[in-house]
Model the fold of this input.
Amino acid sequence: MEFKNIEEIEKSIENIALNDKQKAIKELHEIIELLPDEISNLIDFSFRINRIPKEYMFTSILFAFSNASGLAYGLTALGYKNYGNLYFAIVGSRGDMKSLPMKIATSVLNTIDSETYKEGNSSESENLKQKKLLIQNATIQAAQTSHSYNPYSVGIFLDEIMFLVEKMGNKNNSDGMAWRTFLLEGYNNSTIDILRQTTRSFRIDKSYPTLLGSIQDQFLPTLFGSGNLESGLIDRILFTTKLTENNTLSKESIPFEVTSNYENLLTRIYNSRKSIEEDEEIDSVTLQLNKEAENILFDYIQNLIHQQNREDYIIKAYLSKLQISIHKLIILLHAIRSNNIETKIEIGTVSLAIKINEFYFLNFKIINSEKENSKDQEFNINVAIRKAIQNNATQTDFIKAFGTPKSTLSRKWNEILNSMELETQNKKSATH
Done:
């Protein structure tokens, strides 16, 4: 194999010497160094003071900018037009501080929603017609209706996504199937028709849902099952596993200047989007790549296509969606890094977007290789439930010990209980 330069030699050595987790940590640190100070400082201070894993904060921040940008900016490149909506899942164990970074990163958006809610109440307008950026607890019907009134974006913000996963995995739950369809079509910004017999029917001409939620690693088999993998929903999610850890407690607080600078940057993006949204003559701003940026994007996507031929079907399918997410990441990074968002996109933005895309690919490979271990954990939970029933423990006792979601436990508990009762009946029958 021939190498063109020293960088290719170094990369080849790294691929041999480092495992996927080590590569992901290296990529993460390089990415943070290339981000604007407003973002990198928040990530670093959150890690040092609040012990928030850097990758969790980074993912939460990307979601916030994805939501704030909305349909205001579209990228036309290589014959396609894409927008910046992305789906994210933070994967970790109990106590891994998955919720706090989500809260910090979206604080400004939540404040905007609160102010809008107050204005809506004062004018006696309907709640659903308000410009809500985040939906934290809603039925699929409410989410669809809210998006129809807020066409530029709808942010599905869930502390735990297991309840949504369980709905989608239940073939008898029509809401679950509707959620999956909504997310599948929304990722590609498709037109969504909502036809109802008893309430208002409507059409979302160009959808833009974003998603952020956390999930415990022991439930990955459930996430990958029940049609989520086969439907392609899994391929649309950018996962991050726990990579960094700080065990040193601090008495300090994140400096006000750090959070303020981040919030000002995010607010600037939102205000820019809002002005486009309110302009009746402009649908969205079309971004384009300069020649160098277009060439590097072309080469990268071509490489992803070649890579597909060397991978199994799970990785192959995920690589196909990375060919879309790279466009979306370019839009977000351009908005973050450029004071004049209408300018052409430079090669540096595309190069950083590629690093981020590869970072999430490494995370997916980590998850894919470890989910067999998660299946073993799932089996151990079933064994633990059986022992709990045998020892007359309650479901409440079990939840306190294992942290299993109530809805998940209730179903498993009943299944195992029925199985144990059937085993007992069979034994009795065998003795007669």
